[in-house]
Amino acid sequence: MQCPPDKISQPEKQAIDWFHLSKLEMEIQIISRGTIKPSSPTPHHLRTHKLSLLDQLVPPVNIPVLLFYSAAAENPRKSSLQLKESLSKTLVHFYTFAGQLSESFSIDCNDNGATYIEAQVAIDMSVVLKEPEIDLLLQLLPCDPHENLPEPSAQVLLAIQVNYFACGGMAICVCVHHAVADASAVATFLQSWAAVACGANLTETVTFDCTSLFPPQDLPGFWEVLEENKDLIIREDVVTTRFLFDSSKIDVLRDEIGNGSSLHRPTRVEAVSALICNAIVASIAENDKTIPIYVATSVNLRKRMDFPFPQNCVSNVSQFIMTELPMEKTKNLTNLAGNLHDSITKVDDEYVRKLHAGGAYLNIMKGAVKGFGKNWIFSFSSWCRFPFYETDFGWGKPIWFGTTLRLNRVAFFLDTNDGGGIEAWITLTQEEMVKLEQEPSILDYATFKPST
């Protein structure tokens, strides 16, 4: 597959200011750059979309997803046109993705459109996938995931870059602003786009409005606290390492934890979370045995609440659950996994409604952000079981997918391509990462490329 046969002017280099971070600079030529608008206008009664409290509280970042496809026999002209036309049709249903943020906690669904870029990459895709480091993957994105423009209306809510590699492989890289979607919602969008590309008609109603359950609130105090601590959460002096836990090692770990005093055999996410927590706390204890330690776990609420709307709600329908971990209780993996399990299973319809009815969740989030510099808070966000590997545009399913979201002291869990393992993308300071990589338990269960 050669680069798409659009009329190519003198190729321009994409001036991305974070390119210099990568150890390997890829030669990328922009073939085309434009805007894809919905194929039909958004009805007037849907033009203003109110953000919910959960939309308001997300960090000001884009959610990046990179889908890699092996070379196919599909005609390049057909695949290029197919992606553009199907995206235009899909945006009719996902109209919030084609709008503009306003300062009044809402989206103006004005059919502004999505940024759409096509690029030719001078190397083979295997070079990237052999060791997919985050700074290398960043070069394939249409924008900086941490780009936060001063004017909300200038923020692009959906940007896409389709990269064609020299070998004929393709990477479809998408950035969705977090204010309009969480990772589950991004997966729903990609599934819908792929279905339309294969000829399907979207008949199921897409639901966006969560304000009935999570009404927006005035957040001046929260934004002040967030601004004061932003550099601790989104900071530049951090490193991200990809830890690979294959399914066989996870099975051994689950059996080891399940054979303890608890009768509960942990899920693979619980087991790997407990292992990482145990290793991180062990490295912290070398310097300070008194610092308060908290674990924040992102919980998808779609299947935990008696929703008055469909499960495929496209919005932010996830919230963090904070768990305090006394130092002495983190040494036993069975107890640790049990604590994490209990903190998640308590989240049901009644729990969530009570938490939001009295404003407790907002206070918890304020306290978490405010205490980020005083307490040791580590967060887990699992994307496992989200159907990214099922995203077939007509030339097969992805051979690998990844993300480049880099937030300090956060681990993102992704499925391996066989569905049984976990890729844990963990971001820490250089000093913290070196200690984690030297922990015996991590060395026993994970494979990774050392950060130094």
TrEMBL record:
Gene Ontology terms for molecular function: acyltransferase activity
Highest taxon, organism lineage: Eukaryota
Keyword flag tRNA-binding: no
Keywords: Acyltransferase, Transferase
Gene3D superfamilies assigned: Chloramphenicol acetyltransferase-like domain (3.30.559.10)
InterPro entries registered for this protein in UniProt: CAT-like_dom_sf
Family to which the UniProt record says this protein belongs: Belongs to the plant acyltransferase family.
Record-given protein name: Vinorine synthase-like
Gene behind the chain: LOC110417981
